[in-house]
Amino acid sequence: MSAKLVKFIVMLLSDKKFGKKIIILVLSIAFGLIYLLCLPVIVISNLGSVDLDTTGIDMTQFTEDNFMSQLDSEQADKINAMKDAGTAIETEMANLGIADQTIKAQLIYASFFENVENFDANFFANLFKAAPDDATLIDAINQNYGLEIDYEQYMHTYTFVMNSTINPYMFTDTTTKNAADLSAWANNAYISGWGYMSGFIGEKDSEQRIRRCDNAGLMIGYLNYDPDSKTFTDGYTTLTYTKQGDISTMPEVPGIGLYDGTKHGIYIGLGEVVFCDETVGYVTKQAVSDGTWTSWCTYEGIEYPQAVQDAIDEINEPDDSSEDDSSDESEE
Fold first, then answer.
1. Which residues face 265 on adjacent strands?
2. Domain ranges (residues) in the chain
3. What are 224-282's pLDDT values in tens digits?
4. Domain 179-330 -> CATH class
5. Exposed end of the chain (fewer CB within 10 Å): N or C?
6. Element spanning 318, H or E
7. In terms of DSSP bridges, do strands 295-299 and 238-246 run parallel, antiparallel, or are they unpaired?
8. What span, in angstroms and rounded, lies between the C-alpha atoms of 54 and 29?
9. Tens of pLDDT along 66-82?
10. Residue 120 region, left (φ>0) first, then alpha (ψ -120 to 50), else beta?
11. How far apart are CA 53 and CA 38, in angstroms?
């Protein structure tokens, strides 16, 4: 391990002015999620005007083993306790059927629970299960643990972390491309604050280092994303869709597509749709009834549940000669 990297790690651990920026770095390593921030380069780039000399540092040496080797016994015990709590949180969130909120729960624990004693992961996880929204969640955590987490500060940190990664806990079946996971993908893009950029499908732009997509790219990104390697492939370059019926015939199935003649959206359930809008400049969400959606559609490459096929059959029953209305749309 290079001397410069050792010095760099020691500096990060000892300099308190970096505050919450550094705890995110520690979090990503402690929970075995180094990919969360794509190594500390991203943390460094988000420290604002802080002048850090990283010339000559081989960031490939920044591994969990190397990091842990620089800690004294007290620091190592704290990190190991954090790792154990992170594992317990992951288990409890999965048991409660809310695995997609695991990173959120781990981030809150690592950032604010340093002085909380006798931590119970099950009780903690149930607060997430019960909360209808993040504002209610933060209020419940503050009341139950005597904390003073600022909601705006939390949201800023959480959005930054989520934008830096693709949430691995949101997928129900990584062996297929399915409607449920397409819905989760779209909602995750909204939660993570993806911006708009023509031709993007969820990659980070090189300047602002935030994830971006265009309207069709939101769907194409899911089709091309490989959860195992955590990379985008180039299997799909266009979005092929089939308009199935009027919006009034739409089945209550998260992951089906909505179309208004110019743009696509993904229905995520509870009457809401997520889409990337060039006009507003980012991935947004709205009530279906508030939009101009005229029809619903299915996408090539996505597996849909039987309820979707049943709805298609019902639409086609009166006229078996009706033609399939299929179109290709470029990611641009």
1. 258
2. 3-163, 179-330
3. 999 999 899 999 999 999 999 999 999 999 999 999 999 999 999 999 999 999 999 99
4. alpha beta
5. C
6. none
7. antiparallel
8. 19
9. 666 766 787 777 777 87
10. beta
11. 19
